[in-house]
Amino acid sequence: MQAEQEDRFQEFVRARWSHLVRTAYLLTGDAHHAEDLTQTALAKAYRSWRRVSGSDNPEAYVRRMLVTCNSDRFRKRRVKESLTDVPPERAGRDEAVARVEERGVLLGALAGLPPRQRAVVVMRYWEDLSEAEVAEVLGCSPGTVKSQASKGLAKLRTYPGLAQVMDRAPQGGTK
């Protein structure tokens, strides 16, 4: 890779690292897996940086790599993630603990979705991408995005405890 391309890649990583890790965290539900997933996607992006940087939207290209790498993680070896409804040890109930528990409920609900629905829900409602943008990232039609979002949201609505968390969330949502 030429020095100029190398510099552009490093600038991209510095500017988008935390955003990509946050997206990966929502896809995986685990901070360590999220960092590994982001590093894997960025390693693939580095190898084909000329093509990635030449695209209309390099971030969308790398985001698509995140989703693909996450799907590959499940294909290559069946990863069994077991989340519990209640942590084994409970601390005193203060605001910080309540936020952690609420996040746990949300991550548990997301973990219960199939990978494609989870990717659509995360990108559509957390990343605030349009249906067309999500379709482009996932390589599918906007109709598929709509149906996967609808199915994912329907399944999330049935998740125990999620309704109470959403009722307590400030209007406008939190990130």
In DSSP terms (H or I, runs of 4 or more residues), the helix count works out at: 9
Strand portion: under 5%
State the helicity in percent bands: over 70%
Protein structure class: mainly alpha
Mean pLDDT: 82
H-E order: HHHHHHHHH
Largest beta sheet, briefly? Answer: none
- pLDDT < 50 runs, ≥5 residues: 171-175
Outline: globular
Q: CA-to-CA gap between the ends?
A: 36 Å
- Radius of gyration, taken over Cα atoms and rounded to an integer in Å: 17 Å
Total beta strands:
0
Keywords: DNA-binding, Sigma factor, Transcription, Transcription regulation
Pfam families: Sigma70_r2, Sigma70_r4_2
Family: Belongs to the sigma-70 factor family. ECF subfamily.
Organism: Streptomyces doebereineriae
